[in-house]
Amino acid sequence: DIISSGNYPPVIDQHIRIPYTPPPGVNPYVCVRIEDIDGTVVSDWLYYTPDEWATYDSVLHDSVSGVYYYFTVPGLPYQGKVDYYIKAIDDDGATTESDSFFFLQVEVPPIKINEVLYDAANDGSQGSEPYAEWIEIYNAGDEDFDLSGWMIADDPDFTNPSGSGDGVFTIPSGVTIGAGEYLILAFDADTFNTYWPDHGSAQVVAYGNSPLPLYLGNSGDDIHLFNQMGQEVDVVWIGSGGDMYAWGHAAEDIAAGKSLMRIPDGNDTDYPDVDFFSSDTLGGPTPGTGNNLYICGDINGDGQVSFTDLQYLAQYLFAGGNPPVSMWGADVNGDGQVSFTDLQYLAQYLFAGGPPPNCP
Fold first, then answer.
1. Are 35 and 167 within one domain?
2. CA-to-CA distance for 258 and 236, rounded, in angstroms?
3. How far does the chain reach from its first CA to its final CA, in angstroms?
4. What is the pLDDT of residues 234-250, one digit of tens each?
């Protein structure tokens, strides 16, 4: 509830925090709307206290964009709890304090919203809306996870989704996801299996039968993944259709029939416009399979282009060595094949100032 004194105090609302559940050592960002209807906001602070200490420290905003104020909350280097609230004063001296918020700094599993088809092709080639919608989950860790009781929602408040078409789905008991594996959450499993039969070994779980199902917005939406304790594990926001649009850094709203995908799998900077790309990048949606691109010239897959790639390619071409990690990435002269001429081309680039790799 808003606590205020004076006449027509500022309004503080639309609170968003990224990441919602920060791990130890990470300082989360907070965005709120602060607006004064009869004047201007002259000062603002975010007050915070770790582990329920009696005293609060304060920080000023980092930046302002219109009526949206952005703060960095000092986090903890260890697991713990941070409480905070925002205070604003206008030019008449009227004061507003926001609701109190808190976050727990705990390690969260590396489970990611990895690919989303939220706007099916208009020609019906992927099924009809909303039955054609699906969300791919990826386990970026090295151990299996039980997702029983986890929730997927298109509203930051999974307890009371309030927007048009917003809903929440609880993953049923017994659903697990192995290390490096995928899970498909589909509005309708039959539709998904009909139009995407080649989805690897990924389990498909239907969410359209939820008491309050998700209807993903065709102009974009925000999708939140919560664990069984209600802690937000991952979130992506897309285009202008979701609750988190004001935060900025939304993933691009792409054309119907395309999916948005993390490239590579599990890549997460907390900025969807950096992490997500149109499926055009890989030639189309890839539910249940990898989203990984190649680096042109990185023939051994170590993330860089160097003399070791020359050695690797020579071993493959002339000594029966392992094939390139990506044949496309090994076709450095772009002629459509991998041969001795690619070896020459790469050597010229590395040692004689030749043109850079030019893969197809």
1. no
2. 16
3. 58
4. 999 999 877 787 778 89
